[in-house]
Amino acid sequence: MSERIIVEAVINGEPTETLVSERDSLLEILRDRIGLTGSKEGCNNGNCGACSVMFDGRLVNSCLVMAGEVDGSVVETVEGIAQGDQLHPLQQAFLEEAALQCGICTPGFLVASKALLEENPNPSEYEIRFWLAGNLCRCTGYDKIIRAVQKAAETMTA
Predict the structure, then answer these.
(1) Contact in structure between 36 and 79 (CB atoms under 8 Å)
(2) Helix axes 89-96, 106-119, angle to 10 degrees
(3) Would residue 32 be called left, alpha or beta, if left means φ above 0 and alpha means ψ between -120 and 50 degrees?
(4) Nearest to 73 by CA among 58, 52, 95
């Protein structure tokens, strides 16, 4: 039987406390215990990026982070990107550029793209493609996603 501990973290701006086992991943806790189902389990081995979140200011695959590591930390998921009913410029651009199809990868791309634009508000196409290389999509062919990130960057720097 695995030991359980209480983990306290700020998730999407809200102080959160949950009971975790030593085997729980951050992704499992977000989805199954806290009810934040935006982050998706695509591969569960860190290769697809569908579960991308911000963890203390770093972009990570939440399937690779043990839940116990999050104690005392700040986590931002795709649910924390919009401001109430107001979509983030990235979310709006993804809609306008049809940069999604099945939607499994979209939350990870949004979180990763937001992290990119916070670090580099005016990235080149090459920089966007390089930054998003850890996020896989089987539906869109990536060009629409790249255009959406470029459009959001223009909107955000205007």
Answers:
(1) yes
(2) 130
(3) alpha
(4) 58
Structure tokens at 3: 């030991």
CA 91 – CA 118 distance, rounded (Å): 15
DSSP state of 23: T
Task: Note the pLDDT tens digit of each residue in 84-102.
Answer: 999 999 999 999 999 999 9
How crowded is the C-beta side of 85, counted as CA atoms within 13 Å?
A: 0
- All domains of the chain in start order, with CATH: 4-80 (3.10.20.30), 89-157 (1.10.150.120)
Average pLDDT for the chain: 96
pTM assigned to the model: 0.95
Contact (Cβ atoms closer than 8 angstroms) between residue 87 and residue 119: no
Positions in the chain whose pLDDT score sits under 70? 1
For the chain, how far is it from start to end, CA to CA, in angstroms?
Answer: 55
CA–CA separation, 147 and 59 (whole Å): 21
Between CA 157 and CA 85 the distance in angstroms is: 21
